[in-house]
Amino acid sequence: MKRFHGAQVFVDSVGVHAGETDPFVIEVMKEIGVDISKHKVKTFDQLADGSFDYIISLSPHAQHKAVDLTRYMACEVVFWNTFDPTLVRGSRETRLTAYREVRDRLQQRILEIFPYTEDGAF
């Protein structure tokens, strides 16, 4: 989202569990010119802002957390059931291919809902 809309939209990314940024995610994002090597993984509890217009969750567990978090908010919570590439076993290239497929599918869905325009509007 930040890649296409920059500062036009406030975007934050959180997960259900704390941890480190997955090296495969860093690598496949770098392939498309996005450096997330300094990204700090946050959980729902660490969100700096408590007001949202739109939340996109990528796993059933995250969907439940988002719905619970926004129970008393006027916020749209959308579930994009996303394959977990960490489940793929095999060679490094096989695993990277799984991550690329997830990256590309998420990028496609983002652009379907929030199309990129030259002036940054959507």
Structure characterization notes:
It contains 4 helices and 2 strands; from the N terminus they run ααβαβα. With 122 residues, the protein is mainly α. It has a single domain, classed as Response regulator (Rossmann fold, 3-Layer(aba) Sandwich), CATH 3.40.50.2300. A two-stranded parallel sheet has the order 1-2. The longest helix is centred in the C-terminal third of the chain and has 22 residues. The mean pLDDT is 89.
What is the topological layout?
Blueprint: H1 2-5, H2 23-31, E1 54-57, H3 60-69, E2 76-79, H4 92-113
Parallel strand pairs: 1-2
Helix pairs in contact: 2-4
Cα shape = globular
User: What are the low-pLDDT stretches, counting only 5+ consecutive residues below 50?
Assistant: none
Portion of residues in helices? 25-40%
CATH superfamily: Response regulator
Strand order of the largest sheet: 1-2
Order of helices and strands: HHEHEH
CATH topology: Rossmann fold
Q: What's the total count of β strands? A: 2
Question: Which whole number gives the mean pLDDT?
Answer: 89
Distance between the termini: 12 Å
